[in-house]
Amino acid sequence: MPLTTTGELVTRAHAARTAVAAFNVVTLEHVEAVVAGAEAAGAPVVLQVSENAVAFRQGEVLPLARAAAVAAERALVPVALHLDHVQSDRLLDRAAEAGFSSVMYDASRLPYEANLAATRAAVTRAHAQDLWIEAELGEIGGKGAHVAGARTDPAEARAFVAESGVDALAVAVGSVHAMTTRTAALDHELIGRLDAALDVPLVLHGSSGVPDRDLRAAVAGGIAKVNVGTALNQAMTRAVRACLAADPDVVDARRYLGAGREAMARTVERIVVGVGLTAT
């Protein structure tokens, strides 16, 4: 199937009051697992490569991006490529060349005015490459609970979107990056207020830590893109550990990497079906 774009998938989901799942990938096994899981669920999907993943790949974005593009083109469901949590302008400027249709530019660590200025500049660079661009407002964080006042304010979000020109906004509504337990409690009243205040699609980061019922409610409330990363790594790690524990003499990497790939594919299918993201 021809490579599609993140903007097409998210815009369509936003209009239909549903969402598209976006999974962060680090290895070729991640890529293959996400495509296989999406095909099993009959759902479109976004393959995301973060700036941290690029750093892990020794700073080279093209090898994983090229592999993801080939996997996407051979998939039986629509697949898009997204460059995630970018802070480097150099990497942003390479996004289109590498085959990405979209980028999430992350200046959320900065105070509001600095975040706005950096994001506005990134929007100019992205749109010059015909890239759909997502930004973040609020403090989603890496671990632990939000501090007081860290969640996204609807009025501030409306001004931020209008002044920056972003195509989508990741909002802080109770989820946290890198959670290994599904215990996050989303603020659904806030999601509703953000949805009412903004014309652009809302994005939920840190979805690995959110129970299915909360994710379903978030999608019904206006979330149009659901980002998942840690859940895949948990599935892969558990499967690899189990494989090696069952046969300590294994030296063929295909045995344990294959087990990890299968576990990740099942996780993708479970999340997509469990949250009800199977409409194409």
Q: Give average pLDDT, whole number.
A: 91
CA-based gyration radius: 18 Å
How far is the first residue's CA from the last residue's CA?
13 Å
Number of domains: 1
Total strands: 8
Question: Reading side by side through the largest sheet, how are the strands ordered?
Answer: 1-2-3-4-5-6-7-8
Low-confidence spans: pLDDT under 50, at least 5 residues? 143-149
Order of helices and strands: HEHEHHEHEHEHEHEHEHH
User: Structural class of the helix and strand makeup?
Assistant: alpha/beta
Strand content: 15-25%
In CATH, the homologous superfamily goes by the name Aldolase class I
CATH topology: TIM Barrel
Written overview of the protein:
The chain is of the alpha/beta class. The protein has one domain (6-138, 212-275): TIM Barrel, CATH 3.20.20.70. The protein is 49% helix and 15% strand. The chain has eleven helices and eight strands. The chain has helices spanning 6-16, 28-41, 51-56, 62-73, 89-93, 112-128, 154-164, 188-197, 212-221, 230-246, 253-275, and strands at 20-24, 45-50, 79-86, 102-105, 132-137, 168-171, 202-204, 223-228. Strands 1-2-3-4-5-6-7-8 form an eight-stranded parallel β-barrel, surrounded by eight helices. α2 (28-41) runs parallel beside α4. The longest helix is centred in the C-terminal third of the chain and has 23 residues, at 253-275. The radius of gyration is 18 Å and the shape is globular. The model is unreliable at 143-149 (pLDDT under 50).
